[in-house]
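Cross-posted from the bioinformatics board.
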Amino acid sequence: MENWEKLSKMPYKEIKELQNRKLRAFMANQIYLYSPYYSDLLKELKIDPFKIKGIDDLRHLPFTYKWDIAPTDEEPQKAKDFVIRPDEEVTEKYGHLAKMSMTGGKAMVEEKVYDFKPVHIHFTTGRTALPTPFVYSKRDLENIKEAGYRLLDVFEVTSDDIVINAFPFAPHLAFWQTFFAGEKMDVANFHSGGGKIVGTRNLMDAFEYLRPTVAVFIPGYCYYFLREAVKQGRDFSSIRKIFFGGERVPPGLKDKIKELFTQLGAEDVMVLATYGMTEAKVAWPECPSHEEYHGYHLYPDLEVFETVDPETGDPVGEGEEGEIVYSSLDWRGTAVLRYRTGDIAKGGLLLEPCPNCGRTVPRISSNIQRKSELKEFSMTKVKGTLVNLNNFFPLMMGHPDIEEWQVEMRKRNDDPFDMDEIYLYIATRGDVDREKLVADLKQKVLRDTEVSLTDIIFKSVPELVSQLGMETELKEKRILDSRPS
Amino acid sequence: MEAWSKISRMPAPAIKKLQEELLTKMLKEEMAVRHPYYRNLFKENNINLDEIKGIEDLGRLPFTEKEELLPREDDRRYPKKYVLEVPKEGEQKKKKKGFALFGKKDTGPETSDYKFHTLYFTAGRTAKPAPIEYTHYDLKNLKEAGIRAFDILDLDRDETMINAFTYAPNAFFWQMFYSTIELGSTTLQTGGGKVLGLEKILKAMDNMEAPVFVCAPGYTVFALQTLEHFGFSAENLERVILGIDYTPMEAVEKVSRLMEAIGAKDNKVQRIYFISEAKSGWAECKPDFGYHTNPDHILVEIVDPATGAVLGEGEKGEVVITHLDTRGTVLLRFKTGDIATGGLVTEPCPNCKRTVPRIMGDIERKAYYFELQGSDGTVQFNGNLLRKQMLARDDVLLWYAEIKKDGDLDFLNLVVKGLSGTDEQALLNSLEQELKEEFSVPVTLESATLDAIANKIGLEKYITEQVFFDNRAQ
């Protein structure tokens, strides 16, 4: 890991050289020797790891897809093959670590192996595939801490702040990235575990008890939490910044959140966003700005980002729309190469210095259409049309008349062979002209998702909050696929 | 805190001397100076701290009750009264220079030791959860307590563990987390059934081939009894560490029997006793050999729960704790509401030879002692004994007890779900017989579905299941 101060001011040319150097070492000393999956793959494809001279050569490697890693009932241990592990099982096949230790003998080898030992685990949150474990060695924990430090640094959070972490507790990246960030930045904190763990009321009490300056949330729950706080006349005047993870924050929602904070006594709250993925084992910060979007700042000493055409897999140019492809650099534990994330960066990968903060690290555009927001439902066929359900999020979250919403896909008569139906449940903000709203929503949904709604059903806010599982689920259920399989 | 290798081998009189020194320091240099609540209490009650020369004199100081730590509706920051203030500018340590470095040790407080770092809550089983503030100093102590507990449990870095303690911002989860990271074992922090659900936890246990399972006793029993139903084997399981909830020996024995049934013949079942307010948990080297406390961190007294009189070695009574080396939230003679059936002993542990004071026997919950109105007057009913009895049975899957009113008289209604394949009626009959013999209160019994009982007791909803419901007010 490089010094962040230095790295974030390094010209891109030097950053690329650094990445080339790191990739060469990573391929030859870690991946080829100790990653069972990639070692086999390289041999099978007759790719000489020493010929990977730099990040431009990455394109000679095949992509890795979710289904290559995700365990199945037949192969529950699949993910283990992506773990860099010089243990007996692997070293017997791929060379012996003892050779590296000319003087230390058995104890030295044991210590070396221990350096790679997984100590911490996160899981993906797939709905159709089984959750995939991504493991961290002790060394990797230093990486996730450093990534967290960088994230807080970009957000201008200091050790004088008090942070409340309201991400739901789970062996998932969001909660733990926030935790490890706090450890490294040495910032005072409260890792609540979210509303499901401590309860919304207790969480509000904690806000008033601690008077935090920073809060970390999933957007949907945050919006609900703040509305409840306003109803109870709470005082959250200490809050200066709020940052979100888990999904994109549409501008309309930012406005709603700021407005609610104003009612709670906090003026000029900055709403910040993060982008993270379990497979990369870290999250990245969006450059803070009230007005514009300057992209997420990456950590080029820990990973390589490529953007490719989602159909052909060919690399696209700087700033061009493409699917994000991720490769690990300098990790132990689970490491993936050329992983197809399924996330589309509308504004592509940006290599020039950030016009907002001046940092020189590569950036990925703020407008990311996240596959992981909706998992396997993101592009789904409804009524024979490929529907991009991602588009419901900015539309509904940012709509000024909508308080809560949920989309449900059903089959007519619950018959798997019958027509697809798509229902939109909404709870409005105060009194609105329902007829006008229905017409507006039907037209906008058709425009953004290219599908016409079967029906729009009005619900009360409490009804919909309960239907969404706001207090009971780890993450609220915005999209329900109730179609019988 | 001292070096564990030193403190765990120190003779009892030396431990007592150390505790008295720490107590005097805590009372005079911390509580009397920068503790908003105790400072006022000492002043208002004209308490002369010079008269508190040793542990025997502690009885002159009042107790602190659970309810006092709770936020008030009109003052949510009320519990801050129990938090040490950060030392003022003038009090801070001055950096020594030149020859002064060789002089007398600094005595001034280090500001960073007092600065708030993280917030945990009490479990909130018997009262609302109370905030407990930790500084860096406390976090360092929590980690040290975790390392000591793992040393007592004899765990090493080669372990693969499933931590199924329910996630809560509480010392029990975080002590376990920090200990596993410090130890370097491979550990999945599941967050318990409330977060992942039982099936995923069992699946992880099988996929990771984990030999160590860390969980609350009730949920462990439920998990092992339903393994087959979920289609898992837990074939690598060798050791279970029980904690969070009170773990009587009956639970240890039952878990051991269940492990044997799945093929873990040489199994180990161990216990940890956590008190959120003590900012740490204490482990037992071997079941029934007592929880090994950290005498350089917390002072433990055992008192009569009714009169408050301090009891002698080995006598059953309520556990009372005083912080000796903490910052953030600091408590003096805090009544935990836990009853140690074997009291406190100071002789070395006959098993591991460590010399630290040990809390003996089972821990019972004071809140489970009920007074029932019988036809011949008031009857005492110890729910802890019923819980032990239910844990001892191999044919019970889930249960709960309600205390109800029938006219002027009280009675106990037990709701049970038998293990799969059990004749429910036969189970009810046998239980009725057993309970009538054991308890002098009228008992009714009924069976219910698994879902109904699981929902009622909050099996995957609360930190640990709730099995007693006093419905007399309804």
